[in-house]
Every structure is written in structure tokens, then in C-alpha cells.
Amino acid sequence: MSTVPTATISRLVTYLRILTQLEAQGIKKTSSEHLADEAQVSAFQVRKDLAYFGRFGTRGAGYTVPTLRRELRRILGLTRSWSAAIVGMGRLGEAIAHYPNFGAYDFLLKGAFDIDPHKVGREVAGLTVQHVDELPRVVREKGIDIGFITVPHEAAQDAADALVRAGVKGILNFAPTVIDVPKEIHVEPVDFLAGLKRLSFYILNPQLREEVA
After folding, report:
1. Among candidates 51, 66, 124, 63, which has minimal Cα distance to 90?
2. Which residue ranges make up the annotated binding site for NAD(+)?
3. Which of 25-34, 92-101, 114-123, 198-207 has the weakest average pLDDT?
4. How far apart are CA 105 and CA 141, in angstroms?
5. What is the total count of domains within the chain?
6. How much of the chain exceeds pLDDT 90, in percent?
7. If DSSP codes are grouped into helix, strand and coil, which group holds residue 82?
8. Which member of 45, 114, 125, 131 lies 3.0 to 4.6 Å from 41 by CB, making a disulfide possible if both were Cys?
9. Helix (H, G, I), strand (E, B) or coil at 46
10. Which helix (H) or strand (E) holds 84?
11. For strand 82-87 and strand 63-64, is the pairing parallel, antiparallel, or unpaired?
12. In this structure, what CATH number is given to the domain that contains residue 13?
């Protein structure tokens, strides 16, 4: 398989959401045009994105909704459960821990960590907050795959280092800073302030909105 653009993976997530809604409505068939309209891209873009992974539709007949949804779940790795842990149990960490829909998508929150003695030992969303020093043991015993970093930016690199040493292979980084990890570790940044800044730019400069890649 050739290298798949990050933007394509993001759009696959959007297509999956649309297909899930269609299936819930009892709709059995759809088209690239309909997916494109709902995702606000072109039909050509939809077909191009899907073509990275094979052929899923029939010319003139479109896509079978349950089949394409199942294939996208497989491609995105959503046919198995993923275990996650949070490092940083301040307000953001607690808010994420209380998010009600992890289980609906087979993401299981199995650990909560901090270094603050006032937070360690507390109960949050059914989990006991543990010291970061316990990460390696908990990751090993509970098979944790993903780490959420929700610490202040100045502590993010230490949190990332701890997750990497513990054996976590993927990190969702909510701290507004870039972290340095080995190349085999994938990091997804979640920076809502950066999003707000981009939003303000495009509101002021709508003519400069970039075309979908």
C-alpha cells in the first residue's frame, strides 16, 4: 500500500460517521456523491480516498452501506478493543475520564495517572488515580495501547517519556506543545487553541481557504 495522507484518514473517520448514521436510519445503499455532500468534499475525493484500500462499490450502483461501514471499521482498526490511560488528572483529564461514549467505540479507559500527591489515590470515573511511577506495571498488566497527555505544556515531554518507557505505542497529546518521541510511536495532537486561531484566520479571509488535499 502506498503512503496514505493524514487528511485521507481523517476523512475516512468522517465517512464512517456518515455511514453509521445511514445504517441507523435503515438506508442500505449510498453513493460517492451523497458521502461527498455530507462530508463537504468532492465525489472524486471520496473515490480517491477509498481507492487507497481497495474497491468497495459498483459503478452505477454505489456502495452497500453495511459493507462499506464494516470495511472502514476494519481499516481504521475499530474491530478490536483499545485500552487507554490518562496522564494528568486535572480538570481536562477528569473531563475526558467522564466522557460517556468510550465504550461505544471499543476504547476502554483503564488507567489514570498523576504526580500530584493530592490527586493520587482519588477516585475518578471508577478509576483510582495512580502515580506515574506505576505506569509500566499497569500498562503491562492491563495491556494499555494508548496514552492521553493532559498535563500542562511544560510537563508534556516528561509525560510522553513515561508513556514511551512503559510501552505505549500511541499518544493523544492535548498539551499545547510538540513532544519528541521515537519514530515508531504515533502522536496525534489535539490543540483546540490552534483550531481557534485557524478559524479566526479563515473567517477574516474566506477567499484563502485551502482546497481539500
Report:
1. 124
2. 88-93
3. 198-207
4. 22
5. 2
6. 79
7. strand
8. 45
9. helix
10. strand 82-87
11. unpaired
12. 1.10.10.10
Q: So what's the pLDDT on residue 210?
A: 56
Where do the H-state alpha helices sit in 59-184?
Answer: 65-75, 91-97, 135-142, 156-166
Phi, psi torsion values for 95, nearest 5 degrees: -60, -40
- Please give the single-letter amino acid code of residue 23: E
Q: Name the region of 121 (left: φ>0; alpha: ψ -120 to 50; beta: rest).
A: left
What gap in Å lies between CA 152 and CA 155, rounded to an integer?
A: 6
Say if 210 falls within a structural domain.
no
Extract the C-alpha cell encoding 125: 470515573
**For the domain that residue 108 is a member of, what is the CATH number?**
3.40.50.720
Question: Residues 131-160: what's their mean pLDDT?
Answer: 97
Write out the binding residues. 88-93
Q: What span, in angstroms and rounded, lies between the C-alpha atoms of 43 and 88?
A: 42
